[in-house]
Specification:
Elements lengths: L2 H10 L2 H56 L2 H20 L3 H15 L8 H81 L14 H49 L8 H32 L5 E3 L1 H11 L1 H6 L3 E6 L6 E3 L1 H18 L5 E9 L11 E7 L31 H11 L4 E5 L5 E7 L7
Parallel strand pairs: 2-4
Antiparallel strand pairs: 1-3, 4-5, 5-7, 6-7
Helix pairs in contact: 1-5, 2-3, 2-5, 3-4, 4-5, 5-6, 6-7, 7-11, 8-10, 10-11
Length: 468
Amino acid sequence: MRIQNRLLLAQLAPLVPLLITGLMAVAALWTMTRSVQQARAFQLRRMVTAAEAVGTFREEYALLERFAETGDTRYLDEAKLRSTRMHGTLSTLDQGDTLGRLLDEYEDIAGLDGTTGGRIESQAAARAVVQDLEARHRDFRVDVQDDLLQVARTGRTTGAFIIFMVGVVIVLGGWVSYTLAKDLSEAVRELERGTTALAAGDYAYRIELGRNDEFGQLATAFDDMAKRIAVLDRMKIDFFANVSHDLKTPLTSMSEAADLMAEEVAGPLTEDQERLVKILQSDVARLRGLVGNVLDLSRLGATQAELVPGDVGASTRVVLRDLELLAAQRNVRLEADIEEDLPRVVTNRGMIEQVLMNLVGNALKFSPDGGRVLVEVTMLENTELVRASEHGVLVAVTDQGPGIPMDVRKRIFERFYQVPGQERGGTGLGLYICREIVQTHGGRIWVEDELGGGSRFCFTLVPQKGLA
């Protein structure tokens, strides 16, 4: 199923039962309301009719009493009209059998046919009719109350059903949303792992989702892209390695020839010729450095660095010993502050020595005559820089050069970038190589301002526990 359809399903799945519940609730409420209205109207009509029947009978009783006292037939005629109305009312109330019989008995005794009955007997019969009517009136009122109670019970049942269905909708919607979110998040995490691996240079990583939706198509496209990038990366590495190797031989010959010419082995040189030979020597040295950097880059990409527990303090002492002569030639004091009992860290000794060589070499190059370069190797406390539960190592190289402007600090570790106005014949690859090596070791590299002028390049190495 496509992602778009899954999202639509996730939105509609809770709505369908909710819509059904709403319709059922509306129907139940409508039925309940209609039942209430019908029950109230019907029973109230019966109650009113019963009350009217009591009044009509009392009028008939009074008229018959007048007739019995006076013998005036006008009272008898009026009583007959009331009797007709009473019988009609009893048929309306569906109470004609019992009440009709009691009414007929009273009317026979009271003399509705024109004869005069017994007064006491007629009063007793009238009392029986009134009592029965009042009892019916009470029954009708009880029926109204029963209907209202039934409606209330129906309302409570409907409310409970609605609450139950709302709970079902919430559970169903939550389950559908959770299932869909879990499915999508797993796919996203796998894609994230794939992109992270690709960014780290692991072009052999493949994303296996086993699905035919957009994520599956994206995973397939990602795998195809990784394969093509792996081929291109291999071609790039091979190209740089071959070109750099092929350039070393003619450069060596050019360097030796320039040195021989500078030593006037082939004969004395004029002033202009000496200037041209010096330019040639400088350019050859620059080309040799560029070729060496390109070879370093090709080696970084071609092989996986072998990382083992090591002593970065010992590597630092080796590099400083090798650079003592260069520091003396540039009239720069090369000092070191290396803590004792440093923790062992994850390292490839050759690569770390190359980082130190680049950073200290740059510091010597940019420090003024009579300046100072300080190399510090200290234990780094557990911080965000290390991301480990143990101590790492911080290496800092401080110079007294012109410093790095704030607006270009993020770019100095890019390939071929050089600070404007500070070009000293370099290739712009040294700091980039340092960054790649440090990141390969799981560390971080950055630059800071030094109080009083100059720069302070720092990098970290993770503790031995971080070794996979």
